[in-house]
Amino acid sequence: MPDPVISIKGLRKSYGETEAVRGIDLEVNRGEVFAFLGPNGAGKTTTVEILEGYRKRSGGEVTVLGQDPGRAGREWRERIGIVLQSGRLDPYLTVRESLDLYAGYFRASRPTEEVISLVGLESKAGERTGRLSGGQQRRLDVGMALVGDPELLFLDEPTTGFDPSARRQAWDVIAGLRDLGKTVFLTTHYMDEAQRLADRVTIIAAGQIVARGTPADLGRREEGETTIRYRADGREVALQTTTPTQTLQELTAAALARGEELAGLEVTRPSLEDVYLELTAASEADG
Ligand code: ATP
Asked: Which residues pair with 21 in a beta bridge?
């Protein structure tokens, strides 16, 4: 049985004339990594801030960990971890001191050394935070959100500005959170990140949900057209097909009969990014 940690029905938010969120429904189940994707200005931050209890909604129903975030108190807040867009920490405190200090705000906290190892900062535990690299800072930001040992974590673009290896390491940290049984609500602009980490993905554009599903089946990607490319007589050939097995069989059989190699043979399906661009472009054209 799915156990919803977040449930949204008909959520609306207007800023004056601007309708930032125009009636969205969604559920996030306990223990899943849920990715919320959408172009700039789609309404992601607005939605997340409502879920965190930092912003009032204009309409609809919202339940987070069994309570209305607009009314919930301190006990509820301690069950939620929020990673802010890069932290404003005292640059003269060390990593360990910063985490210890923050732990003092919680009634129950996860031991500092455990947090340090969860985010892979063991070698920097005694370093002043002002001397950390950008990627290490972000890891500490995630660490700060873990101090209170929350059930639910909001990660807002957690790897923006990371180099490729720091991103992979951050992905390991996020995958580790799922292994601990945490529920993760992730907003991101990176399709590969959603693909790699998310159990389910929802795409919002212009305040409305335009697609939802697992990364694999989103937008019926598995059923979409396959492209077969190769070179023949110095030309690039690209074929679209919904029956790639059959088409490939015919192509390769004919090439073999002629004793030819199909140079540069490539078989591809639309990537999550292709599907995303198509869905969000269609909605922006409507809007
Ligand atoms: P991004 O990917 O750029 O962070 P987003 O999906 O998080 O975008 P929001 O920040 O939720 O988008 O903004 C949605 C819409 O609401 C935008 O049109 C934005 O201009 C508008 N908006 C957001 N905050 C406010 C505010 N405080 N006052 C007025 N309009 C706002």
From this structure: 13
Q: Rounded to the nearest 10 degrees, how much is the dihedral formed by the CA atoms of 62, 140, 182, 211?
A: 50
Q: What's the length of the chain?
A: 287
**What's the confidence (pLDDT) of residue 1?**
63
Which residues of the chain are under the pLDDT cut of 50? Answer: none
**Any idea of the CA torsion for 167, 173, 176, 181, to the nearest 10 degrees?**
-110
pLDDT of 59: 97
- Whole-number pLDDT of residue 85: 61
Q: How far, in Å, CA of 206 to CA of 287, rounded?
A: 7
Distance CA 143, CA 1 (A): 31
Domain ranges across the chain: 6-220, 223-286
* pTM as predicted: 0.83
| Ligand 1 atom 4, closest CA | 40
* SS3 call for 122: helix
Output the CA 41–ligand 1 centroid distance in Å.
5
Nearest residue to 72 (alpha-carbon basis) of 40, 50, 99: 50
Alpha-carbon gap, residue 50 to 11, rounded angstroms: 9
Tell how far CA 240 is from the center of its chain: 30
Q: Residue whose CA is closest, atom 30 of ligand 1?
A: 15
Superfamily of 6-220 according to CATH: P-loop containing nucleotide triphosphate hydrolases (3.40.50.300)
